[in-house]
């Protein structure tokens, strides 16, 4: 008898009919002899509706109360699924965050899970129940309702799987698994069977939207095997798990891209201690995340600084940067909104040299100019003109041999 | 500094704009130096919507999960009101049933309040907060969410007022207070300034829909003064409170009517022990409430039994009664759906004789035939043909001098 956690996102529970389908899928797993814990998101669109209500009431709604409001979305889906399962003759019991309890810190609207009580869930399972738990929400040590931030239900599921030592954490979604790159861009993109936590983290933070980053960090920390799979079929999906030899043999696991950034350059910055801080502190105070930062070699006591920010924060960032640039006596500010970040990710890079230069050559061969480069142990990212994004992704996907193998040839 | 409980129903919090109005009203009371506890219902229509969802999923939804679902309605309004108050610069804090806690038994969907913890609310008030509490919901001793049944928010408010020894419990509604009778029937109906708990209980159970009966029982038990008043103006409403001399001086406080019943007569019932039980047990097992029961004097070992049931249960009741009548050897069953119950209510009846006969004479003078009579210490009810309802109510309202006094004459 295995203990499985099954997490379904908002699209999978988007209406009554879909909730019935989820119930059937859950019942099937239970009938196969598993102990089953279900973790649900709110109905697709519902959280947005609740957020809009809060914003309509107040531009900056009180965060404690905001969480009380948006937490209702999951309360609706878990009760409806439990009603459905009971109607099908199964024992089912819903659990809100505070009933589990899922203890978090008190950072409302972006709380972090600190501890999960396993006793009540285990009791419910041992009594033959299917446990249906509200994702996305928790409770702080003072009994206040908290929420984990968008996509937090993935993290709920993984944390619950860790706390209860589940055999696997199935994340059901509207795609078949994690792909070598975006299949809408590259039809030959192939599903990855196994991917390491670190690769998945890079993929997630670089723009692949399958899993919330924090859920992968959690899974890595506690060694939870995540199975990303489709809620519409029974096909095996992608296992996110500890690195193994097989993975290391693969040079590059995936290609990602991100068109959501903009580039700001500050010229002739005096190369003195404290200058970078003067430039970036205002941005961090304004809660603007700076992604890549490149500082050129200093010439004559002056240097150039280039960095990227989310395009949505671009206007706010520019105002702050212009002010700071003036204060530190820099020469001028230049911007570029038409950029994209293209990245290759793979644990194989650690033990294979030449991966980066293969990437640069492939881009050069297509006449694609590289504007910025940044690397980590398992990824290389290049900023390019965004009109070349699709071309770059296709070329890299091809050069690193990620295309689907023709099944008939095997 | 007074401690006031302010309860607003679904119509008063029916949309964003109305919630803002409630916030202003609450803020005003706070600014006047009061400690303020607000108790809210769900937005008008929202509970019905949630109930419909549960029923769409399953004809007889699991009751525990049904309560989890419908409890979300109040969670939405308390968080929105708190967000609004915070935005206006007031300290406000929402409380769900389990956060107060409002401890109930585990009779899901019709739970009864057993105990209310006052510590957390008192702390919040002492810190300068307006406490905003979800009506209608509680938590049982195992931490399951429960709900109190339709109209339960009135009971929540009164119970909270009792637990915190509030000076007054304001029940804001869409009418100005409790009227001597239905103003739609009798334009001269006047607002009652003060009414005793017992009178209010009779009025409520006889068809006046202003307050949930259980809330009045609770108020009586704990001596909570309820102020029923309009959420749209500042006029004083009706105080529901302990009987005083002033009230006793009034012969009849109000006239009520109820068109929601039907009459069933069973003829020539053998007058033997156990027969009534054989007739009424099937009805109570089917959860059908029998209201009036009249048994005539026995003649020759046989008697006639007449009783009333809610019109909505009439068909079910008739089937059960016909079966039972046959079993006990009764002669036949006759029914009448076109009936109405008209009642006069007043604690003054206790000390004044002749009230009932005044009623009978007044009805007779209009040619209205009385089909059944039932009395208690403080009320007299007559069943009449329902086409005379309006006439009867007007005549009784007039004969007992309940019409509005012309202000100019005073």
What does the model show?
Two copies of one chain form a homodimer. Chain A folds into two domains: 172 residues, Acetylglutamate kinase-like (Carbamate kinase, 3-Layer(aba) Sandwich), CATH 3.40.1160.10; 167 residues, VC0802-like, CATH 3.30.2130. The two termini of chain A are 35 Å apart. Chain A has 410 residues and is of the alpha/beta class. In chain A, the strands form five sheets. In chain A, strands 3-6-2-1-9-11-12-10 form an eight-stranded mixed sheet, sandwiched between helices. A four-stranded antiparallel sheet of chain A has the order 13-18-20-19, with helices on both faces. At the A-B interface, helix 1, helix 2, helix 3, helix 4 and strand 3 of A face helix 1, helix 2, helix 3, helix 4 and strand 3 of B.
Write the layout of secondary structure elements.
2 copies of one chain form a homodimer.
Chain A: E1 3-8, H1 16-31, E2 35-40, H2 46-57, H3 63-70, H4 72-87, E3 92-95, E4 102-104, E5 113-116, H5 119-126, E6 130-134, E7 137-139, E8 145-147, H6 152-163, E9 168-173, E10 194-196, H7 197-205, H8 213-222, E11 226-230, E12 238-241, H9 245-248, E13 254-258, E14 261-270, H10 275-285, E15 293-295, E16 302-310, H11 314-328, E17 332-336, E18 339-345, H12 355-365, E19 372-376, E20 379-385, H13 389-399
Helix pairs in contact in A: 1-4, 6-8, 7-8, 10-11, 12-13
């Amino acid at each position: 008898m295995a203990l499985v956690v099954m997490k379904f996102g908002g699209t999978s529970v988007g209406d009554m009919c879909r909730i019935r389908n989820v119930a059937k899928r859950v019942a099937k797993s239970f009938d196969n002899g598993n102990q089953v814990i279900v973790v649900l998101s709110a109905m697709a669109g519902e959280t947005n509706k609740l957020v809009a209500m809060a914003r309509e009431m107040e531009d900056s709604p009180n965060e404690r109360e905001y969480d009380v409001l948006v937490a209702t979305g999951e309360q609706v889906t878990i009760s409806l699924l439990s009603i459905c399962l009971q109607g099908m003759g199964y024992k089912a019991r819903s659990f809100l965050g505070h009933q589990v309890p899922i203890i978090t810190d008190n950072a409302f609207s972006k709380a972090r899970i600190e501890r999960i009580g396993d006793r009540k869930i285990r009791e419910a399972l041992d009594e033959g129940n299917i446990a249906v738990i509200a994702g996305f929400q928790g409770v702080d040590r003072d009994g206040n309702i908290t929420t984990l931030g968008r996509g937090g239900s993935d993290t709920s599921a993984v944390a619950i799987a860790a706390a209860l030592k589940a055999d696997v954490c199935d994340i059901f979604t509207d795609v078949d698994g994690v792909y070598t790159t975006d299949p809408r861009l590259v039809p030959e993109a192939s599903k990855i069977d196994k991917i390491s936590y670190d690769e998945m983290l890079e993929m997630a933070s670089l723009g692949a939207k399958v899993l919330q980053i924090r859920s992968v960090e959690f899974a890595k920390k506690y060694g939870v095997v995540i199975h990303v799979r489709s809620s519409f079929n029974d096909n095996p999906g992608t296992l996110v798990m500890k690195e193994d030899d097989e993975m290391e043999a693969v040079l590059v696991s995936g290609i990602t891209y991100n068109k959501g950034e903009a580039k700001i350059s500050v010229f002739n910055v005096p190369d003195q201690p404290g200058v970078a801080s003067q430039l970036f502190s205002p941005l961090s105070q304004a809660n603007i995340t700076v992604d890549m930062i490149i500082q050129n070699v200093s010439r004559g006591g002056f240097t150039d600084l280039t960095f990227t920010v989310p395009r949505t924060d671009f206007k706010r960032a520019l105002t702050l940067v212009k002010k700071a640039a003036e204060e530190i006596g820099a020469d001028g500010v230049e911007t570029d909104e038409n950029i994209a970040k293209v990245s290759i990710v793979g644990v194989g890079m650690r033990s294979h040299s030449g991966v980066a230069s293969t990437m640069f050559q492939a881009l050069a061969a297509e006449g694609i100019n590289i504007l910025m480069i940044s690397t980590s142990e398992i990824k290389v990212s290049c900023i390019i003109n965004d009109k070349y994004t699709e071309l770059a992704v296709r070329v890299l996907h091809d050069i690193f041999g990620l295309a689907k193998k023709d099944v008939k040839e095997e």
